[in-house]
Amino acid sequence: MGDIVRIRRASLVAFCAAVFEKLGLPPGEAADSAEILVAADARGIPSHGVARLPRYANGLRKGIMAGGVEPATLRETPVSLVLDARGAMGLSLSKKTMERVIAKAEASGVAFASVRDSNHFGIAGWYTELAARRGMIGVCMTNTAALGVPTFGREAMFGTNPIAVSAPALGGRLFTLDMATTCVTRGKVEVYEREGKPLPAGWAVDARGASTGDAQRLLEDMLYQRGGGLLPLGGEGETLGGHKGYGLAVLVDIMTAITSGGVFGKAVMDSEATSARVCHFFGAARIDIFRDPGEFKADMDRLLDELSSAVPADGRGRVYYAGQKEHEAEALSDIEGVPLAAEVAARLAELGASLSVELRP
Questions:
Q1: β-pairing, 110-118 with 80-84?
Q2: Whole-number pLDDT of residue 76
Q3: CA triple 217-52-100, angle to 5 deg
């Protein structure tokens, strides 16, 4: 890994918010977008963090995405909502949509929403945790540009299509599963490309369907749809369950795009200027529709304690439950500052300078 710089979290959020405002976002939307992007880096997920800020800037400058856009309500019931985002920034829009879903669930027990014609929204687990911190089970999915190759295929037919679920335990502790349905995300491949490292075997295939470790070539091939792409969760073939990851990826397309009337499958395409228009899905369920919330959280606490105290394999330090690494990294970031690759920090500083916004380490 290259050099790392740490920036105080509040300073990094303020910098990103100021950049977004300079690019035309209303203050509230700029603040939301900055908070969500920085959360990814704070949790040790740089693939979805502030390294994407220049890409947002490019999209906003070219009018491919826009701030201050009010989504159109296509259909609404007491337990559901379908929105056309009309090209809005995905970050703040998704926060507001999940808040509407939570409000409906508070009244009705459960609620769901699907959204079409949106943009990249950061880490899916950020939205599920909004529900979990309100004593609910939260669900979130999004489709993405077609980057994933189906089992026995050689061309990308679906996105990395993440699924996230959060559930609360006692004392504010959360279980947060936030996973791509491909072996890795494109953002992870971008990290390897930036660091000049070969991809591990089993992550991706080239245009012939053969395993590839060339991150730069893979990114170019996926952008221009020359063939090749990321393998589904489980990897190549059926032996290790790659067909299951493939099925999950298609499920996300159904829940996000088919329910909202949006774009799905290989029709979801990136360009050199910006990320593809995508679709989202959000859900929330009150715990008391199943059982007493206190009893639920106590059992969750016991489950998480059992998992985190499991005996590790030889040569391994400890066993984690989903979300534990990220929450521990976030706590450390709040004390020591958010870690950024020096190259990313330099690019942010350059972007800020072009807008008269200073980035302060």
A1: parallel
A2: 98
A3: 125
**Three-state DSSP state, 318:** coil
pLDDT for position 129: 98
Confirm if 341 and 46 have CB atoms less than 8 A apart. yes
Is 110 strand, coil or helix? Answer: strand
**Cβ atoms 284, 99 nearer than 8 A:** no
Rounded Cα–Cα distance for residues 352 and 361 (Å): 13
Question: Using 50, 70 and 90 to split pLDDT, how confident is the model at 144?
Answer: very high
pLDDT at 1 over 60: no
What is the C-alpha to C-alpha distance for residues 189 and 218, in angstroms, rounded to an integer?
A: 9
Helix (H) or strand (E) segment spanning residue 88 = none
- Can you give the C-alpha Rg of the chain in angstroms? 20
For domain 1-63+322-361, say whether CATH 1.10.1530.10 is its number.
yes
Alpha helices in the chain (DSSP H): 9-22, 27-42, 53-61, 90-108, 124-132, 186-195, 215-223, 242-253, 293-308, 324-336, 342-354
At 29, which helix (H) or strand (E)?
helix 27-42
Q: Give the contacts of 134 (CB within 8 A, at least 6 positions apart).
A: 102, 106, 284
Dist CA 117 CA 89 (whole Å) = 10
Q: Provide the pairing of β-strand 338-341 with 4-7.
A: antiparallel
CA-to-CA distance for 52 and 167, rounded, in angstroms? 28
CB-CB neighbours of 198 under 10 Å: 10
Angle at 315 between CA 311 and CA 318, to 5 degrees: 40
Kindly indicate whether the domain formed by 71-308 is annotated with CATH number 3.30.1370.60.
yes
Question: Using N-to-C axis directions, what is the helix angle for 186-195 and 215-223, rounded to 10°?
Answer: 140
For residue 206, give both structure tokens. Answer: 């080239």
Cα distance between residue 200 and residue 198, in whole Å: 6
Pick from 98, 123, 113: nearest CA to 177 = 123
pTM for the structure as a whole? 0.94
Report the C-alpha gap between 147 and 158 in whole angstroms.
6
The whole-angstrom separation of Cα 89 and Cα 93 is 6
- CA neighbor of 99 nearest in space, from 111, 84, 82, 86: 111
Residue 226 amino acid letter? R
Residue position matching structure tokens 């027990």: 109
